[in-house]
Amino acid sequence: MSIESAARAAVARPEPRAGLSLRRLLDRSLGLISFVLLVAALEAGLWLFGVPDYVLPRPSQIFLALVRGFAPPILSPSQYYVNIGTTLIEAVASFVLGSAFGTLAGALIVEFRSVRRLALPYIVGLQSVPKVALAPLFVVWFGFGIESKILLGVLLTFFPLLINTAAGFSAVERDRLELMTSLKAKAWTTFWMVKFPSALPFIFAGLEMAAVYSILGAVVGEFVGGNSGLGVLILNRNAAMDIAGSLAALVILAVMGIALQRAVAFARQRVLFWAPSNDALDTRDPE
Amino acid sequence: MIAAPKPTRVDAQPPGAPAIQVQGLVKTYRSQREGTVRALEEIDFTVADGEFICIVGPSGCGKSTLLKILAGIVPHSVGTVLVRGKAPRDADNRLGLVFQAPVLLPWRTVLQNTLLPAQVLGLDRAASQARAHELLRMVGLEQFAASYPSELSGGMQQRCSITRALLHDPSILLMDEPFGALDAMTRDTMNLELQRIWRESGKTIFLITHSIPEAVFLADRVLVMSPRPGRIIEEIRIDLPRPRDLDTMSEPVFAEAVRHIRRLFGIGAQDRPHVD
Fold it and tell me: Which of A139, B8, B205, B236 could cross-link A225 (Cys pair, CB 3.0–4.6 Å)?
C-alpha cells in the first residue's frame, strides 16, 4: 500500500459509534440468525405435521446422525472418516490433474496453430458428451477403486480449465504483446512474463468451477460402483432407509465443496492481488 | 541521465549514420469489408541521430501504423525501412517504446515494471537495478518503487512507462501519443521533462501526437501527414532555441508554426471563422 492510499484509508475510517457498531453486528450475524431460524422452523414444522423420518428427518436427527458417524471406531467403513478420506483424495487428485492438463491444453491450443487444428475437433466432440455418462465405462475399464473416480473427475475438471485458459490467452492485451515484440523478446519469454500472468484471472475462474466438478466426479463415480467414499455411504444409508444418515453425508459433501472452493478463492486472492475480485460468493464487507 | 550507471549499451551504432531511413514505404492491408486498403502511401523521410521528430496527422491517417513498422511490430508492404541501418525486426533493434496507455504489468511493482527490458534482454542485474532507481529518481517516482501501478495516478503510471522505455538505454525512443490521456497541466510538465531527458541523453525521439502545439514545442522537425492513405505532406523545421520553456509558446515563431500546420489541415482556413 502506498503512503497516499494508507493515508486515505486512515482518513476514511469513521469513528466507531455504539449505535452503528450494534447495527454492524446485526448485519454481520444476519446469515447466522436466519440459519438458526430456518432450522428451528423446519424442526418445529416437521414435528408438528408428523412427517415420517424415512421421508424427511428433522434437523436434529441429521445432527445426531452426524455425531454417530463421527463416533469411534474411527477406521470402520460405516463411519465417516475413511469415506471422507476416499472422496477427498479422489476429488483433490482429479482437481489437480484435470486442472493441470486443462491449463496446459488450453495454452497449447492458443499458442500453436497445428495443435489447434489437430486437437480441437476431438475436444469439441468430447466436450459435447455428458461426461458423467462415461462413469459406468470407467468402472469397467479402471475398476472399483479410486482410479475410475479420479479419471472421471479429471475429465470433468479438464474442460472448464481448457476453455478458460484458452479464453485467457486469447484475451491478452495487444499493447502488452507489442511491447514485448518491440524488445524482440523470445516467444517463451513473452509467454512466461506476459501471457501466462495475464491469463491467470481466467484460469482461476476455471479453477473455481473445477473445485465443484471434482467432487461431483468423485460422488458420481462412487454411485456407479465403488467400495468406499461418501457416495457409497449415501447409497448404503438410502438402502437402509436411513435418510438422516444420507442427508448427514450430504452435509459433509457441502462442507467439503465449500472448503475446496474457499481454498481456491484464498489462493486467488494471494496470487491475483493485482486483479479486481469478481467473487460473487464473497460475503465479506468490501474495503 | 548520463550520470546514471549504464548496463552495456545494447544497440551501439556507427556515428553519423541516420537513425531512421524510410524510402518509398507503402503499407497495404486486407480488410474483409473494404478489400485491399492503402494505409500508408509513398512515405520518404530520414531521421538524423539525436534528432527529435514529431508526427502530426488526423486520426486514422496511419501514423500509429508507421510507428509500429519502425518498432518491428507490423511488417511494411513495399519500400525500404532501415532502423540504425538494419531491418526493424532485426534482433539488435531493441527500441524504447511508449504507448498512449502506460501498459504497465499490474502484477509487477513500479521497479519491476521498469526492470522489464533488463529481464527480457538478459542485462546485468545489479547494474540494471541501479539504473532503474536512478531513472525512477529522475522522474520523481523513487518513493513509489515498491508500489503497484494501480496505486499510481495516470501521470505517474506514464512516467513509469517512460523509465521502462529508457532502462536499456536504447538510442531510439518511439512514442505513440504518450501524453494524450493526461490533463493539460500534467502534459506541460511531461513535455518539459521529456525535453530534458532528450537533451541529457542525446537519444533520437520519434513522437506521434495530435496536439499541434505539443509537436511544435518538442520537435526539431515536424512531419505533417495527410488523411488516409497517409502521406507526409510537409516537413517543418522548428527553429526555436533550446531549452524551450512554457514562455516559448508565446513567441511569434511558435505561433506562426502552429498556425501554419493548422492551415495544412484546413483548420481556421475554411472550416471555422478566422479568429486572430
Answer: A139
